[in-house]
User: What shape does this take?
Amino acid sequence: MATKFYSCTPIPAKPASKTVSNKSFLLHNSRISTLGHHSNLLPSSSSSSSSAFTLRASISPAATSVSVDGPSTPTKPSKTLPFRVGHGFDLHRLEPGYPLIIGGIDIPHDRGCEAHSDGDVLLHCVVDAILGALGLPDIGQLFPDSDPKWKGAASTVFIKEAVRLMHEAGYEIGNLDATLILQRPKLSPHKDAIKANLSELLGADPSVVNLKAKTHEKVDSLGENRSIAAHTVVLLMRK
Assistant: This one.
């Protein structure tokens, strides 16, 4: 018997259903991305696959394509940031018999900060702002008041260490803004000296270091000259 051969044309696979006029598509097991359009990815009611999604896209008349690709691995954010921001706060009681040191400058007053170290509220605050920007432990963890070696220590030691860590991480001061809160004494006569010394300790140009002083309108311990506080915000820039 003679063998008969037949020519067969393959039947193309059924494409994913789509209705361009309604701007909707049904795609299975795919990662869907649209270029230049707003879209919402919603679970499909189709029972053919539990991972089916319906993409409703608002497509402009100029749109020419919708791309479909496979799953991608999320990229881990880099820890090397172009800049970092930190905030510091400190508060100390004011008591007779202690020196009042602010920003490394001895300020004449009848009271000073009671603290384990020299109680320099501004430098402590700046140190915490730098450490916070770097994502490091705070000043109390690096220089604990339970350690006798820090008893009466000059706060310039702490800020020099914070600056060393900043440079080691590859950053420098972008700018710094500090606010001192105390009822007395008036700091206007001392602000220039404090700012100059702080800038030198930071290795920063004085133009990027700002210092403000506020009273507390005679409210609570700050306003009653029983304490002193400081806030600092610092911007670190990648070298």
Observations:
- The two ends are 88 Å apart (CA to CA).
